[in-house]
Design a protein that fits this description.
The chain is of the alpha/beta class. It is built from 17 helices and 8 strands. The protein has a single domain, classed as TIM Barrel (Alpha-Beta Barrel), CATH 3.20.20.
């Protein structure tokens, strides 16, 4: 296929044969989102081009032509998916509730979330089978209310892993989370370490994975069809953390592009570490963003353009895919060596004056016991809890509509 017919993400994938594109939402949401975007295309020519790209985007039933190789979910995405189809899920909640002895909203919450995961895993199974377990994974995040309880997280992880062989457990980057990762890996369960923002968390994840694999080998357990990824929530490090505030407190003025460079710098440093010593875990980027069209830069998305060529996974939320599609004519090509290009010296000199940045870029910049105190972690945790509460409230309303049992 000629380059002019390729999508932005297809061009990105060409920079490294091991690079992967994932979909950051339940697969069931894709058809409706795709059709809505095509209906809002600016003209007929664009609509036809986009339609052709979508025919190669998320096609798990035809793995040989699917650009997307995996799926990530989280409580916020699951909540948005369910709340976006209240009629259908209202009936499903009624069905689930009538099969229980008691109307317990928390139990229903778990069951409903598991149904979303099971549906996603079923949709991606052809790709998983076609690739012999290399692709077609679905990340299922643990209940955020339990992220400091090893026993509860482990129990939930084991239940989720039973839903389908292509379910990957999404474990938070807390001190307790790394204990869970060690246990899961030792049992041959695939993991995605999420809510990570610092180099120290990536190093700790790699250590936990290696220790889990060592336990498995000693026990004679095989880790067939197993994978581990560690997620850098790249857009949240600068967007939701204290980077700008900490910089101002130390007399450093950072603009929007400086913030982007800080986010990219963390990824470049992790890529260096992982290349120097190949770990059995792959970096995954989430919370990807595009640049303001009025920003003083010719880049459309520094998150993509400054990390191109790396052996990493990009999980793309629907809004991000739409944003880069609408600006695809401005993003003609990618530099396959971009990941190795250093941050501009003037920018780097400003950033290293900020403790928040130095803490993130150093392998020992923050001890594991303090991971959950990182400001970006705190902000993300609060957001996820709010969306969990929204879904619980929806379930409670549906349960309240059921006739009383006698």
């Amino acid at each position: 296929m000629s380059p002019e017919h390729l999508s932005v993400l297809e061009k990105l994938q060409l920079t490294n044969e091991s690079l992967e594109i994932w979909w950051d939402s339940p697969p069931a949401d894709f058809p409706g989102w795709r059709d809505d975007l095509l209906a809002r295309a600016p003209d007929v020519v664009t609509r036809r081009r986009w339609a052709a790209q979508f025919d190669r985007f998320l096609v798990p039933h035809a793995p040989e032509r699917s650009l997307v190789r995996g799926v990530t979910t989280n409580p916020s995405l699951v909540a948005n998916s369910i709340l976006g189809s209240p009629s259908w899920w209202g009936r499903e909640i009624h069905r689930q509730a009538t099969q229980q002895q008691d109307f317990d909203p928390d139990s229903l919450f778990s069951l409903v979330c598991q149904e979303v995961i099971a549906s996603a895993a079923n949709a991606m199974m052809p790709l998983w089978q076609h690739s012999d377990g290399q692709y077609g994974w679905v990340s299922a995040q643990l209940d955020p209310r339990n992220m400091f309880d090893v026993a509860l997280m482990t129990d939930e992880a084991l239940q989720l892993a039973k839903r389908s062989p292509n379910v990957m457990i999404k474990v938070p980057g807390t001190f307790e989370g790394y204990q869970v990762i060690r246990q899961l890996v030792s049992r041959g369960i695939s993991i995605n370490n999420t809510m990570s923002y610092t180099v120290a968390q990536f190093v700790e994840c790699a250590r936990a994975v290696e220790e889990g694999l060592a336990i498995a080998r000693r026990a004679g357990n095989r880790n067939d069809r197993w994978r581990a990824v560690v997620t850098d929530m790249i857009g949240r490090y600068g967007g939701q953390g204290n980077l700008v505030r900490d910089a101002a407190a130390h007399g450093v003025e950072l603009g929007p592009l400086d913030v982007r460079w800080a986010e990219v710098a963390v990824v470049k440093r992790i890529a260096q570490i992982f290349r120097a010593r190949p770990y059995p875990v792959k970096m995954l980027l989430s919370s990807l963003e595009t640049e303001d069209p009025d920003a003083p830069t010719d880049m459309v998305s520094m998150h993509l353009q400054q990390t191109a060529g790396a052996n990493i996974v990009y999980t793309c939320k629907p809004s991000f895919v739409e944003a880069i599609m609408r600006r695809e004519l401005d993003l003609v090509d990618f530099d396959p060596d971009a990941i190795d290009e250093p941050v501009p010296k003037a920018v780097h000199d400003r950033l290293v004056r900020v403790p928040y940045f130095r803490q993130a870029i150093q392998p020992d910049g923050i001890p594991p016991e303090q991971f959950a105190e990182h400001s970006a972690f705190v902000a993300t945790h609060a957001e996820v809890n709010r969306n969990t509460a929204r879904l619980l409230e929806f379930i409670r309303h549906r349960v309240a509509e059921l006739p009383a049992r006698h």
